[in-house]
Give the backbone structure.
Amino acid sequence: MNKHLLNRRQFSARCAAFGLSFPALSAMIAAQATAQVPGTGAASKPAARTVKLPDGTTVPPLGQGCWHLGQGRHPLAVEEEALRTGISLGLTLVDTSGNYGNGRSEQFISRVIAGQRDRIFLVSKVEPNQVSGDGMARACEASLARLGSDYLDLYLLHAPVPSTQFSGVVAGFEQLRAAGKIRAWGVSNFNSGQMEDLFRVPDGHRCATNQVPYSLNYRHIEPAVLSWCKQHNMPVMAYSPLGGDHNLVVGDRTLVQIAAMHDCSAAAVALAWVIRSGSVIAIPESGSPAHVKENAVALSIALTPRDLQTLDAAFPGPFGAT
Ligand SMILES: NC(=O)c1ccc[n+]([C@@H]2O[C@H](COP(=O)([O-])OP(=O)(O)OC[C@H]3O[C@@H](n4cnc5c(N)ncnc54)[C@H](OP(=O)(O)O)[C@@H]3O)[C@@H](O)[C@H]2O)c1
């Protein structure tokens, strides 16, 4: 076997030459990814195939965010095709919220997941101003009605409430779980101190994930939140993994150069970087089938140590790369 790892173009060409099928190609990618090549810095780091939640449930490391979908950014049929395409390519974790487009994101999703609900890991969110009284139960019922589903796989508190309210929120989530309305719960936009406080209340340790912003050009979570979650074996769910609408990384020159070496898009490299540890789930949003196909390639990219070093130098983050 050639001691040098091949880029995607070389690898595909070689497989085609040998008439290899896609499963065989995948197996070879995995074998290549674990090969060590002394002196070249070319040992590959493949994306994990699944990420494990604390309760043992496994989810794909790449999902699909739906914040703006179903609200006219792209033609509706195109957005439906985008979400369907992603699901067919394994991006079966679908993220939404009761407040995205005043419920229109959830209604949009319901049309796409109809008939294939059991393939989907469905995530929605409750707002901080909905947690008092029976507010969580009512918000959850409204989301389920819009989604056309009997249950959510994961229900997140969209943003922190004061720590004094954590025990009530956790109790509300646990009641929904006991009633079969949700299978797991988590939080979003929590810092490490808030995670500590959450773990101090009864059942707080049942939190499945913390959904926070994380991308090459927004690495702020690394020193505290990311390391806290790692210490507690809790995956982080990275939102705005391409930098978000107003700060997209995909045009960056370094990223474009690395993408050319892997014969893929800059977006795919950016997403492969976000999910590189095996304990981060990225939820890029796209209403474009072509973009979704590009993004799905991230699952099969093996970034080399040299790629990672180059990306660290280009995107050191506010505290220096960790
Ligand atoms: N918990 C929270 O507080 C919170 C906050 C923000 C977001 N979120 C979640 O995270 C999801 C993603 O975050 P986000 O929308 O802020 O940021 P993002 O996924 O980083 O960026 C979305 C933007 O990237 C574009 N894009 C996607 N794939 C691309 C590709 N291959 N090439 C070029 N452009 C591409 C999309 O345009 P096209 O549609 O044209 O592809 C869209 O403009 C949201 O949908 C939502 O579910 C959660």
User: Anything to note?
Assistant: The pocket of NAP is lined by residues 65-67, 95, 158, 188-189, 211, 239-245, 248, 250, 265, 267, 283-288, 291, 294-295 (CB under 6 Å). Residues 44-314 form a domain with the TIM Barrel fold (CATH 3.20.20.100). The CA atoms of residues 53 and 311 lie 28 Å apart. The first helix runs from residue 8 to 17.
